[in-house]
Amino acid sequence: MQDKNEDCIYIYFFVVLNILFVANRFPFPPFRGDKLKIYNLTRRLAAKHDLYLVTFYEKREELNYLKDIQPYFKEIELVYLPKWRSVLNGIPALFSSTPLQLAYFKSSKMKRMVQLAIDQYDIDVVHTQHLRMSQYTRKIDLPKILDLPDAFSLYFKRRKETERPLVNRLIDAIEIGRLTKAEKIITKYDKTLVCSIEDKKYLDKLHKTDNVDILLNGVDLETFDVGEGHDYSHNHTLLFTGNMDYAPNVDAVQYFVKEMWPAISDANPKTQFIIAGQRPVDAVKKLENDRIKVTGFIPDLKDMYAEASVVIAPLRFGAGTQNKVLEAMAMGVPTVCTHIGFEGLQIASGQGVIMAEEKEKFILEVNTLLSDTAKRQSVGEQGLEIARTSFSWDKIALKLETYLQEVARR
Length: 410
Known about the structure:
Blueprint: H1 2-13, E1 18-23, H2 33-45, E2 50-57, H3 66-69, E3 75-80, H4 83-93, H5 100-103, H6 108-120, E4 125-129, E5 144-147, H7 152-160, H8 166-182, E6 191-194, H9 197-207, E7 212-214, E8 237-241, H10 247-259, H11 261-267, E9 272-276, H12 282-285, E10 292-296, H13 301-307, E11 310-313, H14 323-330, E12 335-337, E13 353-355, H15 359-371, H16 373-390, H17 393-408
Parallel strand pairs: 1-2, 1-4, 2-3, 4-5, 5-6, 6-7, 8-9, 8-11, 9-10, 11-12, 12-13
């Protein structure tokens, strides 16, 4: 009887919504975090609601992908923002109090297009992706959600503490102060979403707010489908995946190769290390040798995970959760990672992912997995089960839908 009552309550409150998504990047192809999340969420929400999109696009060729997202949106408004314009936007910001991360995405046309969409499409609720886009929706008098990939100020705080050139750390120090002030805007939204409990606790404490909730990152279980299961019989491949022009990823592989790979390589002379991801910068390409391979863009990362014995994520700065870790879990591949992003998984170490904070422990855990077939299988299969039950985009989209319905009824 209780279940029936709960069903009735849900049906009573369910309303078809006109939802405006304000995004910082064109959501296709979904090869990076920002694009990946907005694409997977909207294509599921579109089955029940009427969606509208206002977004930047950086390159003209992105327009070729309009056909891939049009089925999910009633209307799409686009604003061209090439990289050179973002760089120019950043120059005056150096001498102001505006965070560079907001200045890069400053556009008078975007401001007009967001207002036009609100005026024309009878919007019920606004979903703003990223702090960068809050400058266009913070004053809107409609129910609204701010969806953050992570606590930006926490990300820059950790980056500043990493060994980098002095000028970079000085810029980061300035940016942290500016972002901390800019982040206060989260209190102006009906709800702010982050993908990990770590980020929620940080923002709650820093900004003394109670409107922050969690929307986990997800993984596409159709794309990353391990079929009959992962092959745990081999120990020949150590894998790192990610966009290889992204600072935390670049730092991670440089750090790993310098500080950990020599010991792992000596203990496992037949194991290779593969760095798979688009746009590798020169610093990453220089790491390549006879046992380290830098692939560049891979059309289907599923194939790389299928060949991997162990996945590593030795990130030293960042926030939120890591897509690479979720993808490895979905493919049943055991993973070793640092604390960066681990808490957001809400699992115990060993349940698909082994958390190793210190360099020596990281080396030990990787070597142990490479030498122990049974442990690779145990850790990997636990991760696969958790990915299927907790991190499917279908489940994450339902959670977002609940938040949107809640906010729209304010």
